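Hallway conversation turned thread

IA: we were arguing at lunch whether anyone had actually written out Branched-chain-amino-acid aminotransferase end to end. Turns out nobody had. So, for the record, here is the sequence (303 residues) and right after it the structure tokens. Reply here if something looks off.
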Amino acid sequence: MPSYCYFKGAVVPLEDAKISVMTHALHYGTALFEGIRANWNAAHGQLYIFRLLDHMKRMKDGCKVLRLDIPHTAEDLSRITADVVKKCGFKEDTYVRPLAYKSSEALGVRLHDLKSDFLVFAIPWGRYIDVDTCRCAVSTWRRPDDNVFPPSVKATGLYINNALTKTEAIENGFDEGIMLTPDGHVAEGSGENLFLVEKGKLVTPATYSSILNGITRDTVITLAKQELGLEVEERLVDRYELYTADECFLTGTAAHLTPVCEIDRRRLGEGGIGPVTAKLKDLYFEAIKGNLPKYAGWCTPVY
């Protein structure tokens, strides 16, 4: 089934959406993106885009930082995105990629005096971390300080940091890497936020710990509090806690909720999926597929 892209103000076949080799964003990373999931519910005969407006609001905030002048509101971007996904006609789990970028065909390091543009496309895509339980290692690469680059802005150029981390982990025999903050506290994975279960509480690095303020992260915190009655601590997390926690899992739009069984070759708990992680994973997948009426507002039906 063909895929489509909103490109230069029109919906076109994905293979026709091409940019020049002179495009500023290609040379300097002057672009930002969102990753959005659309989840197929066969029982409903429906594809649900998860927390679409929240993603677009975050994109608009990032545009302010990178001085990307996109003449659309978050609501406009959501409508355009839903139209593209509908045009694709997929009846399977789908990944949606919006991109705001400096589109001028010009060289020179800057953000000013450059044109901006927006595109979005959708493709079928299954699991990002293709294992049931994930083996992680603490990376030698660290997250940048907020005054180096704001980690909550999903800028394409910043993701070199994440790419270095991911490749290091894979080449060393692990599934994912965990980065630390500049001062050595736990931050996040290469494409995921991180949670620990400690003595019945859910613990996650705070937003000031050089992390992306993840939408899946926020989803899990909400479900943990409202559905399981768990206490959630957002705070500085020390490295040693990675080894002493009862459970650990990663969250992200691409990765969904992925349990972690081992960190730096130290087994967590019984080495499988812990009980709290299992409950949250089940709740999360019910929510994203539109099966929890309480959270229906998170799901945008496509068809």
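OS: looked through it. The mean pLDDT is 96.
IA: good, adding that to the notes. The CA atoms of residues 259 and 278 lie 8 Å apart.
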